[in-house]
User: Fold this.
Amino acid sequence: MNVLLGFAATGRIGPLHCGMPLAGAEEVLGPGRPHPQIVMKGPDFDGYPYAWGGLELVVTRRHVSGISIRLDPGSAARLPPEVLPDAGACAATFLREDFTAALDAAGCRRVTNAALTFDEQSAFTTRPAGVNVLFGVPVAGVDAPDRSRFYLEFLDKQTA
Assistant:
């Protein structure tokens, strides 16, 4: 959870940050798995992610323009060991109340993201880092302890 809290509070994951060259990110993480559009259209095709397990970096003009972490409640999050040094996988099931309480304890402010809050999902944007944090009610087939509660699904930072 410390990696997720740190990202939400700062918009950075260790040395990774929006604006850095893709080459610098690949120095840290090794080569990523490019999105199929990048494979088909070439490395200068913008706006699609390179992936390292549950970590994705969106690339524009060969610079990181977005960072996201995808979580699947009821499973393990797979993050590169350079991001999660103790292990390549960690629990990916975090209740909204637990995550927001941890943010409060860390002094991380947030505002509701109305564009992403509707039906069975809710979201907020952290301040001042500008990380979008999305929670959802598990869909059928997801092994979550309580299917009526909101779980952390996604953290995302994009450059303007």
Q: What stands out?
A: The chain has a mean pLDDT of 85. The CA atoms of residues 34 and 49 lie 6 Å apart. The chain is about 20% helix and 30% strand. The first strand starts at residue 33 and ends at 34.
